[in-house]
Design brief:
This protein is an all-alpha fold. It has two helices and no strands. The chain has one domain. The relative contact order is 0.06. Keywords: Membrane, Transmembrane, Transmembrane helix.
Amino acid sequence: MKASIMVIVVTIISIFYVVKSWYLSTFAHFINDWYNIEVFLRRYIVNYLLNLYFSYTD
């Protein structure tokens, strides 16, 4: 039973990696833009939350 679960997991992971590599090679420029936007938003949101937190702790 455990062996079949491992096979399924490995298959899903390998399919994911194949799809991901194809996706990256096809949409690399889109991903770069989105990644930059995502990083910017994440930093902005984290800074915003930290500012809120510190303004409440004063």
